[in-house]
Amino acid sequence: MTNDLDTPTPTVSVLGLGPMGSALAQALLSAGTTTTVWNRTESKARPLEHAGAVIAPDAAAAVAASDLVITCLRDHASTRELLDEVPPEALAGRTVVVFASSTPGEARRTQEWAETRGIDLLIGAIMVPTPVIGTPDALILYSGRQDLLEAARSTLEVLAPRSPFVGTDPGMASVLDTAMLEVFFTGMTAFLHAAAVVTANGLSAADFVPWANSMLDILPDTFRGLAADTDRGEYPGNEDNLAMELSALTHMVETSRDAGVDPGLPTLMRDLAREAVERGHGADGWSRIVEVLRESS
Length: 297
Prior knowledge:
The chain has 297 residues and is of the alpha/beta class.
């Protein structure tokens, strides 16, 4: 199909219509993209049919209907299992974009699996919740085959205007996904732990938000400093040192216990600092903890 300017009209199939898959399909439809959808439970496709999508009778028909195939399943194993059901001739000449939660190693196995079957496959990691898909704030990371990303970029940027290629290692999108989520979930958990402590001492969680935000304000510069130390392998304690911080962390553990709050989170941090000090690094800065983490594993 062509438009008035004789430029190809993109055709996309979305396989897997959970909340995220449905959001991807809806964003494509809203942009006027010819969209075919498929899901094992067909009822999940009906709302998208009303929005203009074509429902394929099976996965093979969905793949055959479009040049660009997007899978959005639970994990890479289920993605490989599904695509193994599709005849090789249906996959030939098409680009398959895999969106699924994955470890880096699993993503690399999927790339190897695709290469043995002659499948042109690109791996993506969606970094935003469903309501953000298709908005200017949407972010999806891609790794593996940059040529496939660039060929499909105009269509994929409908889903996420921010669609950076992060490396030829097919596992790199998953590396960054898990690392970024670690920062995110650790931050949320730290806030909730601190909120439990302050509410046990008479403040509301809302009262604490401005104080918590004041810590966030200094984190960007702190991250840059920690990164520089980590990359250099040098951990100067010019502005702080682990011996001093061990004392503060011990107070966090005791304050948690006094408030009747699980002290596990501050205990973990205290024990990391204690181990570094016991190894003779009490005069080093907090960045030394990266070596404790590496050696402990």
